[in-house]
Amino acid sequence: MRDYLQKILTAKVYDVAEESALDPLPVLSARIGVPLWLKREDQQPVFSFKLRGAYNKMAQLGRTERDRGVLAASAGNHAQGVALAAQKMGCKATIVMPETTPQIKVAAVTERGAQVVLHGESFNEAYEHALTLQRQTGAVFIHPYDDPDVIAGQGSIGMEILRQHQDEISAIFVPIGGGGLIAGIAAYVKQVRPDIEVIGVQPVDSDAMAQSLKANERVTLANVGLFADGVAVKRVGEETFRLVREYVDEIVLCDTDEICAAIKDVFVDTRSILEPAGALAVAGAKRWIETHGAPAAACVAIASGANMNFDRLRFVAERAELGEAREAIFAVSIPERPGSFRAFCEIIGRRAITEFNYRYADSEVAHIFVGIEVLDRQEKERLLTEFATQRIEAHDLSDNEMAKLHIRHLVGGHAPQVDNERLYRFEFPERPGALLNFLSKMSAGWNISLFHYRNHGADYGRVLVAIQVPPADDGAFQSFLENLGYAYAEETGNPAYTMFLGR
Q1: pLDDT in the model for residue 309
Q2: Are 147 and 81 in contact (CB under 8 A)?
Q3: Strands 36-40 and 298-303, bridge-based pairing
């Protein structure tokens, strides 16, 4: 412990790293009832804390070792740290990265002059290949986490936190992959402020450290989830496991939706976008506070990285509200007759509808896939009770992974029993009551046979509606469209409709 304290206090990190800010999160803090501070390692030159440990390790090498070049295995952020350190020191660097690594991280490494070798689907496969290359080339291997000098470099974050926030701190939340970050922070904090709890956070599908602590030995996972690729490690380090077992108070597990919600929380407060692993500590802090109650003093979460693939943002936005329990998804069955749709919407009332999927399939019962904005899980339960009171069958799909990933995009199909169907695109004002206004102005004799809507965050909602209109009602239907006040376009002849949805 004393050795690590000395190593951390003398760590050579500030040639490349900055003392990152410790920023408050006022909006999130007000919501969870605890002052939560964010340690902004996402603002480092490589947008991650990893350059601290990489540079500190390489700074300990002699000239002969550096001349042989360095080699590393990484899912991305350690790779950038090694590449930057090598660029700074003028030595050759080769990085083995999993083939699943986001392109933004691969490009960031090559831009700093390092050679990238893509190998395997996980960090462990890349790691084994890197060891093979190390034996062949004689380069110095820079381990991403299981090295005392790397651990000491990461531990400088703990030193900065205690210097920056000298008031009481209840807990520090740290993401865990291989364990280097939390091992270094815990080694420092528990020596200087043993009253502060150090709490690790892992995804439920990449929980090698949690399982290892439970088994009291290092466990190798058969598979790891790749959403939070920065912590997708099958086996934690030997030295990091020893330190975590000795000095870390607790491990919290979070699912993908909670991580997405945390990304949104940080964006709301800072206008910065963290990568999934970078937001993991915030997700863990929220879950821990919800489970344990508000602690006596402030909490700190480590924002470990911001190397986010842009293409992932649509998924994050889709899942964030579910992770915050602010969107409930239901499968609802109502009678297939005119007026029942409107009666269902009246139960929803002023609650915002975030998604609505329906396609005619049966003459007796209509099955609807609907998303509804709620304040919390308790409101979702109240809504289920309202449905039951009105004898409407409703199933909660908010935690149904297949429904969230696939079924919501597949509701539909041909409807051979539907006559006189006309298909229209509408632009609804994005405000409560827009749907009820539409239904109120529509003739009670016209049946809605298809309805699709999803909130995209714009100032109007894109809605696709099919309505059964007898030919004799052509004039009345045209008047309805003109008096509605919503922009519309007919799509009855669209080949996408005729091939996949039409009669």
Answers
A1: 81
A2: no
A3: parallel
Torsion of CA 224, 286, 214, 275, to 10 degrees: 30
Contacts of 154 (CB under 8 A, 6+ apart): 49, 52, 53, 180, 181, 183, 184, 185
Is the Cβ–Cβ distance between 199 and 284 less than 8 Å? yes
Among candidate residues 330, 275, 355, 266, the one with its CA nearest the CA of residue 307: 275
Q: What does the buried/exposed string (b/e) look like for 336-349 if buried means 16 or more CB atoms within 10 Å of the residue's CB?
A: beeebbbebbeebe
What's residue 179's pLDDT?
Answer: 97
Mean pLDDT of all residues in 358-367: 83
> What order of strands is seen across the sheet that includes strand 93-97?
115-118, 93-97, 70-73, 140-141
DSSP annotation of 407: I
What pairing do the DSSP bridges indicate for beta strands 327-335 and 365-373?
antiparallel
Q: What average pLDDT score do residues 150-175 get?
A: 98
DSSP state letter for 406:
I
Angle, helices 340-348/377-389, rounded to nearest 10 degrees:
140
10 Å CB burial of residue 53 (0-12, 13-18, 19+) is buried
- Neighbouring C-alpha atoms within 13 Å toward the C-beta of 35: 11
Q: Going from the N-terminus, what domains does the chain have, and what CATH number goes with each?
A: 2-45+148-317 (3.40.50.1100), 50-141 (3.40.50.1100), 325-500 (3.40.1020.10)
pLDDT of the residue at 273: 96
Instruction: Compute CA distances 287 → 169, 183, 249, 321, whole Å.
Output: 18, 22, 15, 15
pLDDT at 70: 97
Mind giving me the DSSP string for 158-184?
HHHHHHH--S-EEEEEEE-SSSHHHHH
Catalytic pick among 39, 50, 57, 190:
50
Q: Indicate which residue of 212, 304, 398, 449 is catalytic.
A: 304
Among candidate residues 65, 291, 53, the one with its CA nearest the CA of residue 179: 53
Is 105 catalytic? The answer is: no
Q: Convert the pLDDT of each residue in 207-244 to its tens digit.
A: 999 999 999 999 999 888 888 988 989 999 999 999 99
Is residue 440 flagged as an active site residue?
Answer: no
User: Rounded distance, CA 76 to CA 439, Å?
Assistant: 52
Confidence of residue 345 (pLDDT cuts 50, 70, 90): confident
